[in-house]
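WARN retry 2 of 3 for item q-0093 after timeout on previous attempt; input resubmitted unchanged.
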Amino acid sequence: MGNRIKTGVAYVVKLLPIAIELIEKYRGTDEKKDSPECAFPVGEYNAMRLSLGIIGRKCNCRVEVIPYLARHAFAVLAILKRMLL
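OK item q-0093 returned
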């Protein structure tokens, strides 16, 4: 739960049970996190983009795999598989 940065509108993120399990498992176990509220270290955007690019090349993807693509690909798969959100 929070507010969108651009609009200030409140939002709620629904999590699947496996996501909740992972967050509970790793909460408080890493001192490198940006803040105590984070369950995982956030990391640098460029490092994430580089890692996704490596994964994309290893998978012989014809398009550049970037965070935007990864996020939306997950959303499409969730909808197609009728994940309960």
